[in-house]
Amino acid sequence: MALTDMASLLRDYRAVGAFNFVQLELAEAIVLGAEEAGAGAVLQLSENAVRFHGSLAPAAYAALRLADQASTPIVVHLDHATDEALVDEAIALGVPSIMFDAAHLPESENVERTREVAQRAHTAGVWVEAELGEIGGKGGAHTPGVRTNVDDAVAFCAATGVDALAVAVGSSHAMTHRDAQLDNDLIRRLARSVPVPLVLHGSSGVADSGIDAAIRAGMRKINIGTHVSAVMTHAVRKVLSTDSTIVDPRTYLAAGRSAVASEVARLLRVIVEGHIRVGAPGSTS
Ligand code: G3H
Ligand code: ZN
Prior knowledge:
alpha/beta, TIM Barrel, 11 helices, globular, binds zinc ion
């Protein structure tokens, strides 16, 4: 059994890679990549992906079973949930970590709703991530200028009791070019003052060197979604464009799965290398 919880994973690693999946083969690829790298990872499913499937349980159970069978520690995480009923359902299904995303609400409402969700989740032993300073890029908006204020972040954590905080530091969701410039000085100031691990969303738009620098500045959870989807889609497109007689989905899904597994392994080496904690799987001690 390699299904684990976020607190344990973050105890072992200075920073962890968290990858979004939409369908089964992408989830399999993320676990395969983590196994190839010999590193723990987070397998996350967003509320948007749940909406695509029409319900949470089939995808969540698949992720939980993949984690169970993995040879490396895997956390299953519900990502960007705005619907409290969905959070409660995930907790009931045994998902050990959730992000409650009320960053779009007025701040007092964000605090109040997040505090209530955190209380319920903690009663069930579930880890809670929240967001302050809306990270751009969803719904087409590209707003890399948004920044989280340090004092606001400290106050938000105290008022809500969350376990991790997603902060706006220059990244933006759904980027297909890895050229976002992060504010590492702000990350350093947030990491010094905020009492919980910091989460970098929209990491698809950040180059390897930017991810490495962000971790050195204090980022602990690196969320990557669009990039792994793009790798899968490009690999599938390449197979389909070379042979118009293909009808068996396994033919192209195998190519997509294998490409994503290699890229996840490579990214995990970037995230973990130089940042591994003594005692973590893969460390030399
Ligand atoms: O919550 C998920 C991440 O923030 C993924 O963002 O698709 O831009 O990498 P991304
Ligand atoms: Zn995100």
